[in-house]
Amino acid sequence: MDPIHEGATGVAVEDIQERLGSLGYTIDEAERAESLFGQSTANSVARFRLDHDLPLGTAVDAATWSALVDEGYNLGDRTLYLRLPNFHGRDVRQLQERLNILGFSCGESDGFYGVHTEAAVRLFQESVGLLGDGMAFQETYDAIERLRHVWAGKPANGPHPMGGMGFARAANVLESNRISITGNDPIARNVAARAWNLAGATTERSGLDLIDSADVAPKGTKAVLVLTSDRPAKRNRTSTVLMDDLETLPRRLRAAIESSRLDPPVVRLSLPATGSAGFTVSDAQTLAVLLLDAICSAFAG
C-alpha cells in the first residue's frame, strides 16, 4: 500500500483514526469530523509506531497498517487455530498471556498462534472438560473468562517455578481443606493410596480422604481428584489435567477445580505414561510425593 501521510483525507484516514482511538490514542475532534490526517493524528501514529517497535515516523505504511489491524482484535472476535501463515494479533497475545498465567505455557506472548500456543490450548481444553482439539473458539473463551479472578491483573511473562512446599505449610493446607482422592485403575489406585498415606504422615488432622469412587465423596469435600494412568479418548464433563509439567501443575490443577461445573468439582489427573510391567514401587512413591506437593500448592492460595 502507498503510505498515508499528514494532509490526507477520506475513508482510509477515518479508519485509521477509529482504530487509534479504540486503542486509547487521542485524535482531535476537528480532525475526526473532517476525516483529516492532521497534527494530532500524526502524533498518535508516531506514538503507536514507537509503542509497537516500528521505525520512527508519522506515516501509516504497510507495516503500521498491519499492526493497527492486529491490535484491533480482542479475544473472542474470531476462531483461532494452527495454520500457515499463523494467526497473529492482539487477541492471540491476550490468549497467550492468560494461558501462561493459568499455567499452560505458550512460551513468549508474541501474538502468533504457533505450535506452542496450540499445545497450550489443547491442554487447557482437556483440563476443563472440553474437546482438546487446539481450536480456540467461544467455549474455550468462556472457560477462560470464568477464570478471570485467577488471571486478571497478574503478570503474564510465562509460568514461574513453584518449588516444593515446606512441611508446616503443607500440613496447614491439608488441615484446612477436605479433598477426596481415588484411582480408576490399579496403578492409579496405588499412587492415590500412597499420597493418602503421606498426607496422614504429614499431619494427623489431614483432610485428604481416600475414597472408592467420585460418587462417595464425604460431605464438605472441596474437590475430588480421580487419578488415571490413561488419557481420555473423548469429550466428557470431567476436567482433565496431565501430570507432566510439574512447575505449572499446581496452577493447572487449581484452574481445573475452579472451572469445574460439578459440585463438588471433579478433576481427572492423568499420570505420566508408564507400562504396567515397568512400573515400580519407587515410581509409585515418587508420583505420590509429587502429587501431594502439587495438591498442597494448588490449595495454598
Mind sketching the topology for me?
Elements (H helix, E strand, L loop, with lengths): L10 H12 L6 H6 L4 H13 L10 H10 L18 H13 L12 H13 L10 H8 L2 H4 L15 H10 L2 E5 L2 H17 L5 E3 L12 E6 L10 E4 L6 H11 L6 E5 L10 H20 L1
Parallel strand pairs: 1-2, 1-3, 3-5, 4-5
Helix pairs in contact: 9-12, 10-12, 11-12
Notes on the protein architecture:
With 301 residues, this protein is α/β, with parallel strands linked by helices. The chain has three domains: 11-71, Muramoyl-pentapeptide Carboxypeptidase, domain 1 (Orthogonal Bundle); 90-151, Orthogonal Bundle (Muramoyl-pentapeptide Carboxypeptidase, domain 1); 167-300, 3-Layer(aba) Sandwich (Rossmann fold). The protein is built from twelve helices and five strands. A five-stranded parallel β-sheet has the order 2-1-3-5-4. It is elongated and about 75 Å long. Mean pLDDT is 86; it is low at 158-163.
Outline:
This protein has 301 residues and is an alpha/beta fold. It is built from twelve helices and five strands. The chain is elongated.
- Give the CA-CA distance, first to last residue: 52 Å
Rounded average pLDDT: 86
Helix and strand composition category: alpha/beta
Question: Could you name the ranges where pLDDT drops below 50 across 5 or more consecutive residues?
Answer: 158-163
- Helix/strand order, N-terminal first: HHHHHHHHHEHEEEHEH
Spatial ordering of strands, largest sheet: 2-1-3-5-4
- Helix percent reads 40-55%
Question: Main traits of this protein?
Answer:
12 helices, elongated, alpha/beta, about 300 residues, Rossmann fold, about 10% strand, Muramoyl-pentapeptide Carboxypeptidase, domain 1
